[in-house]
Amino acid sequence: MKGILRVALKLLVNDRGKFAALIVGITFAMFLIVQLTSIFSGILTKASATIINIGSKVWVMDPSLQNPLNTIPMPSYVLDLVKSIDGVKYAVPLYSGVGLVKLKDGNWQPATVLGLDDATLVGRPALLEGKIDDIFGADAFIIAKDEDYPKLESPQIGTTFEINDHRSVIVGIAKAPVGGLFGIPTLYTTYNRAVQYLPNTRYTIAYILVEPKSEADIPGILEAVKKTGYLGLTRGEFEKKVSNYYIFQTGVGTNILMMTFISFLVGMSISGQTFYTFVLENLEKFGALKAIGARNSELVYMILCQASFSALTGYGLGVGLSALLIAVGKKYVPNYTAEIGFWNLGLALVMVFVVAAFSSLIAVRKVMTVQPFDIFRG
Predict the structure, then answer these.
(1) Which strand (E) or helix (H) includes residue 90?
(2) C-alpha dihedral (302, 305, 308, 314), degrees to nearest 10
(3) Global model pTM greater than 0.85
(4) What is the mean pLDDT of the chain?
(5) In Å, how far from its chain's centre is CA 51?
(6) For 70, which DSSP code?
(7) By CB neighbour count within 10 A (0-12 exposed, 13-18 middle, 19+ buried), where does 1 fall?
(8) With the CA atoms of 281, 285, 288 and 294 taken in that order, what torsion angle do they form, in degrees rounded to the nearest 10?
(9) Closest CA to 254 of 45, 40, 48
C-alpha cells in the first residue's frame, strides 16, 4: 500500500501545472473562508467589549435590552432589590453613555463614558499610567488606550478637554483588553460625575454589576432577579445575547455567511474541475496499473491520497496567508477586527475535506470505469 500511495503522490506532484492550479484554487478558497469567519469572530468580540473589559460575573439589566450600545436605564430601587438577594456579596451600579468631546482643533469626537461606582470602583481597568485614586479628583477621567485612543489626539496625563461643555482632565491611561466595535474611544470616571456631565433620562443605572458569594449562588441570584421583572445574565450569557443580536437581527451574520458559502463553492468548483482534468490526463497510467494487477480499491486509495494531500496543503497555505494578513492588518490598520479561533479553523478544515471528497468522487467514478484493454488498444 505504501508503494501505491508513493506512486499516487509522484503522479500528482510531477504534473506541476495541474498541481499548482489545484493548490491555488484550494488555498484561495480557504483564505477567503478563514478571513471572512475571522472578521465575523472579531466583530462579535468587539461588540462585547464593555462586557469583557468590565469583567463582572453577573449583569442585571432591563429585559428588553439587545445591544450594549443602547442601554435602557433602570430605577435606583432595582439596585436595592438586587443587594437584598441571598447569595449576593455586593452589587454596584454602572453608568454607560456617550458624550461629545471637544478637541483642541475645535472638532468634536463622540466617546463612550463608563461611570464606575464611587465607593468601590468595581469594573475599573488596569492602568498603564497614573493612579486609580486620582479618579476622585476634580473633573478626572481615565482613557482606555485601544485602537480608538488616537481619535482623542492621544492625550497624556494632565491633558484637558471638554465633555458636553464640562472641563475634563486625563488622570490615567488604562489598558483595554478589547477595543470597541464602532470606533468610539472609551473614558472612565466615577458614577456621580458621569451622571452630572452627561444628559440623562429620569433613571441613570445602565447595568447592575453583581458579585456572588460563590459560583453556586449564581443560579439562585438569576432566578431572584427574574422574579423582580428584570434580567440577570452571567458574563458568558450576556456575550452570547449580544452575539445573537448581531447574527440574527442585523445583516452582519447573513452577509458574511453568504460570502463564506460562495467562497466554498468557488473552491469546490475550481478544485473539482482541476482534479478531474488531472485524472483524465493520467487515465492511461491508472489503466496500466490495473493491467499489472492493481485492484480498484487500491486505485481509490490513490485518488483519496491525492485529493487529501492537495486539500491539506491548500488548507495550510490558506490559513497561513490569512494569519499573515491579519497580523499585518492588526499592526497597520486601526480597528481591524479579524481574529482566528479554533471554531473557524475547524470550520475551514471540515469544508476542505468536503472539497476533497467532492473532487475524489468525480475522479473515482472515471477511474473505476477504465479498462486496461482500452489503454493498450489505443
Answers:
(1) strand 88-102
(2) -100
(3) no
(4) 85
(5) 15
(6) S
(7) exposed
(8) -120
(9) 40
Rounded CA separation 340/323 (Å) = 7
User: What's the first-to-final CA gap in the chain, in angstroms?
Assistant: 29
212 pairs with which residues across the strands?
A: 88
Measured CA to CA, the distance from residue 40 to residue 340 in angstroms comes to: 10
Give, for 45, the enclosing helix (H) or strand (E): helix 16-47
Distance set, CA 287 to CA 9, 18, 92, 278 (Å): 17, 20, 77, 14
User: And the C-alpha cell for 33?
Assistant: 473562508
* Cα–Cα distance for residue pair 304/86, rounded to 1 Å: 61
Q: In DSSP terms, which residues pair with 358 in a beta bridge?
A: none
Pairing mode of beta strands 186-190, 166-175: unpaired
* Whether the Cβ atoms of residue 322 and residue 378 lie closer than 8 Å to each other: no
How many beta carbons lie within 10 A of that of residue 370, not counting itself?
A: 17
Lookup result for grid cell 454602572: 94
242: Cα separation from own chain's centroid? 12
Convert the pLDDT of each residue in 165-175 to its tens digit.
889 999 999 98
Taking CA atoms, 60 is separated from 96, 270, 346, in Å, by: 13, 51, 34
- What is d(CA 310, CA 270) in angstroms, rounded to the nearest whole number? 12
Contact 104, 161 (CB under 8 A): yes
Q: Which helix (H) or strand (E) holds 170?
A: strand 166-175
Q: How confident is the model at residue 275 (pLDDT cuts 50, 70, 90)?
A: confident
Within 8 A by CB and 6+ apart from 341, the residues are: 38, 41
